[in-house]
Known about the structure:
By secondary structure, this protein is of the alpha+beta class. The chain contains five helices and 18 strands.
Amino acid sequence: xxxxxxxxxxxxxxxxxxxxxxxxxxxxxxxxxxxxxxxxxxxxxxxxxxxxxxxxxxxxxxxxxxxxxxxxxxxxxxxxxxxxxxxxxxxxxxxxxxxxxxxxxxxxxxxxxxxxxxxxxxxxxxxxxxxxxxxxxxxxxxxxxxxxxxxxxxxxxxxxxxxxxxxxxxxxxxxxxxxxxxxxxxxxxxxxxxxxxxxxxxxxxxxxxxxxxxxxxxxxxxxxxxxxxxxxxxxxxxxxxxxxxxxxxxxxxxxxxxxxxxxxxxxxxxxxxxxxxxxxxxxxxxxxxxxxxxxxxxxxxxxxxxxxxxxxxxxxxxxxxxxxxxxxxxxxxxxxxxxxxxxxxxxxxxxxxxxxxxxxxxxxxxxxxxx
Length: 371
């Protein structure tokens, strides 16, 4: 069946020239209650999502992620893995060799072990836990204005952070091409820390996320399938029917999960097997199609709003939440601005850190070609 757009058509008609996505609901002071509510809702909707993941369905939803000059950022209301205790203010760094454990025995959170960054980056979030992260954008130094470096940290209790991933746009590349690394000092293609990349089409409207495997074009057919690169996600930005100013739709296609809750391996040998091709041909077997949640038009603020439960504090056209149409209350991922160069990025099962970080990088990059 078709889920989604009908319910939102009225809102969409009202799309004025206002394109900020504001945040609504709790301020960061009421965050504890917001977190509790959010956790409760997510617990209930967990079953629905599992069912939804088994089904395939054509789905579409109106939404938007308009361009604005450097209007991206995230992070000031800091809070821990669904802990209902409020952490202190953020900034100290922790060695990545630490285990980011759940805040207290009283919360039934699984232990989030980031000892092996390479393994953690591609491991789906545990069911029932929201992995809360922040992205900082560094524009300092030569070329950094054009080619900033983005750092992803896991948020921990008392404002501490654990480094997870770094990403930077490659120069001299015909299309946008971001390298993602588990070493913040080594962002090179040949480096041992290279863990994945994000590549766009020429228009900058479609993106694919790869792991660090081998490009099938550069290999002989005798090559072991297991060394071919996996596609971990595809992101497609579409203009809305109203032209430039209203909500824009964002579709995210990720590999499905098997009965053991492991990611299905998708290693295309040609164009027809890619995630984007499968999605465009409506061949959604063993893939999951997600969309950004449609913000609701608010007459008082004359803008579209989404409820980030205190995790996002600044309006930005780049703020978004990713959902499955069959279960719109279960937020698979959310991203939003909290300061000039700081953003929060939270993700849930079945997403992993590398997928979520690359999707966030694509939203920084999706430019005028989408207008």
